[in-house]
Request: fold
Amino acid sequence: MSEGVSCLCLTYGRPLLLEEAVESFLRQTWKGPKELIVLNDHPDQELVFNHADVVVVNRKTRLRSLGEKRNLSVELARYEYLFPWDDDDVHLPWRIEETMRELKVRHFFKCPQVWQTSQGILDDHVEDDDFAYHAAAAYSRHTFEEVGGYSRINGGEDQEFEKAIRHGGNTSPYWNIVRLPLERVFYIYRRWHGSYHASGVDDLRDIEPEVQPGRYRLRPHWNADYCTEVSRLIERIRAA
Reply:
């Protein structure tokens, strides 16, 4: 398996949010080989984007569980290091760079600090040492195979996956959580964005967003200058 980074972006019926996630990938500062796998299983909407480092996979049938969808995204990936890349959040340009530095220490890394938005306003910084914010994590293919991948369930598969990695507690040969300086925290979690949250439902099959049927050509962009917004929030935190 080639030494490089595969970012795994699962999506279903919300291309406007997805465009910001794709833009986040395109802005990454890491210079090594990388790809973004966009796995779409909405049968009524075909996503299109032409870029050498972005692979869009459209399925005509919906997968039965989010765990199955995560496992399929790993099968589609060609590189050794795997990054969950949520389609409804923002990943700042230094995410891969910071993460790869820590993945050289162990086969799993997660930054416990994230930025949060509410109603589109970046307003909070939180920490969680347990199993929240899976999209702030990354792991090697070796780790994925060692724990048997994700459970084929709808909801909670990410927490089960991380618990399996941490089975030996903090002495696990894979588990690695490192706090970063505020300037290097790289993940913006949107508490509310007008769409669904996978963590807010018992069964993702109950989610049926309205979509523009047919072919949808993605136009990656950010709706705000998130790097500047983070810098301003850091100034407010330190001035408090």
